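--- STAGE predict ---
source: upstream dedup step, 1 unique chain passed
mode: sequence only
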Amino acid sequence: MPPLAGKEAGPIGFGLMGLTWRITPCPQEQAFEAMRAALKNGCNFWNGGEIYGKPDYNSLVLLERYFEKYPEDADKVVLSIKGGNNPETGHSDGSPENTRRTIDDCMTQLKGRKRIDLFEFARRDPNVPLEVTFGVIEKEYIQAGKIGGISLSEVRAETIHEAVKYTKVMAVEVELSMFSTHVLDNGVAAACTQYGIPLIAYSPIGRGLLTGHVKKIDDIEPMMKMWKLPRIQEENFNQNMQLVNTVLKLAEKKGLTPAQLAINWTRALSKRPGMPTIIPIPGATTVARVEENSKLADLTDEDMAQIDAILAKFPVAGDRYHPMIPSNT
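--- STAGE serialize ---
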């Protein structure tokens, strides 16, 4: 695996969002156990956010408490944090003032217990040139040794091509799963390959649908319902479950859980010509799920061809996000 911010990252990462951004987050000690299990199983690339929960209990608060208890783990973790939203408007704000505010607030919440290795705006601000935003981060934070580097989140290919003119982009985080293959065809994966940038695949198990635990709409995590994601709405859900049910059968034949098949499928894409290194970052709130998600499995060319055929046979119904939520920025 290529180093991230000068550190070795495991082939599968760990998404922290679900530990704090829930209607009822899991108990803190349970979160700690899941985090320790992630490290134990080689998942040392952790992805959290200032926006993942309320200010008094977001990823940064949880991380500060974790590293207070386990200070020896700080250097083992490659930490990616996203922020950039204006607290008053809720929208991405790449102005110098808000860029300083968001990074400073994140560092303050960590209380010096862990350095931020990668910082990314959750979405690109269409109203502020990248040169301005990245200029502040480069001069005042990276060159000053306060953070490790810059990554991008939920961007289109054009943003990547533009961003590399102003900074060293260390990672690009985008949605990639059997439900969301758009980045393989819209130039995002190709741009990552062109510049040697690892692609961080968020939601590799399709926001929980590819775990095999969701049989009906009522089984979906309440927070997902609140977002009104088109793919889990009644008019699309049953069609999308056809893909899920077919994946379940293939996973069973392989001796894998559906989540393991889905996660390792994203990894296996890296082997295809023209593809970048891909690091999936599934989330989990229990040790059992972390251990399940961290299992490495090699998929054969025949396996990949079967999955290609399944994806062609069962096209996904509905967009990734509600129109009110920015995407492909």
